[in-house]
Amino acid sequence: xxxxLRHPPHGRDAPLRRCAYLEALAEHARGLALGPxxxxxxxxxxxxxxxxxxxxxxxxxxxxxxxxxxxxxxIELKLVSVWRxxxxxxxxxxxxxDLTIDPWHKLGNVLWVFADRLTRVVVGHRFTQMVGxxxxxxxxxxxxxxxxERPSLFVEAREQEQRQAPAYYLxxxxxxxxxxxxxxxxxxxxxDSRWWSSARTGGRDPLIxxxxxxxxxELSCPRCGGPIRADHERLGRDGWAPAVHAxxxxxxxxxxxxxxxxxxxxxxxxxxxxxxxxxxxxxxxLGPDQVERLADHVVEPDDxxx
Length: 306
What we know:
Helix content: 10-25%
Distance between the termini: 42 Å
Number of helices: 10
Strand order of the largest sheet: 11-15-14-13-12
Low-confidence stretches: none
Oligomer: single chain
Shape: globular
Radius of gyration: 20 Å
């Protein structure tokens, strides 16, 4: 059920906020697999765990639900999960903030970080400032009926931990209308939500095995060495395919769903910095003590340009 907006729009452009260090982190985040950090810093199955993992990688506390902006109270960070659709990249509606928080403040200056929905690998980013026609189009949501029209910003009633937790959301159509989603990005794969739901066992995401163009036949599980079967034709066409782990298998592999991803479709190409770590992270080969924070490897500039 949708509810009326609580906070009226500000009716003025947001002042530009930027930070050279955040820009450097965003540039270096391409090819970052968020799964290992999510397992490290958030409870399994928690809402927004990959966004919390991104915050951790950027050197922030993995929190949510605060009225302060994520980065120095100047810029908000938003993780947008994307997948490849017939008309280009697509995404779902995106939570902005809880109903008690001013969404217009949250959206003044935003770093949108795009991650592939299937692999949870960062594939790109974009900064926005809420000004001019873009601001005016979004502010029109204030006067649009939330039930019978399609506002870009809306409040949705939801239940969380057996309590009401209404929140502001941006519609998926808003991202397309404003041209925020690129037509395509390396590393973005199609997504099958029905298969994904069936493949998640015990609240755990299915495990990934990389396919490197081997001829038709079984793949070798990178975790236990057992045989993995997948449709090679679909792997070549779509970049991924559901997989079956045959016996023998390790204890960890036997309790999880599986899928294969074409190594040629990853966000980082062979030989690029971080490619080896990306492959290990995707295939679940990193132990908790091997998960390195992105902020520890990006040099902080002397001048943040603000």
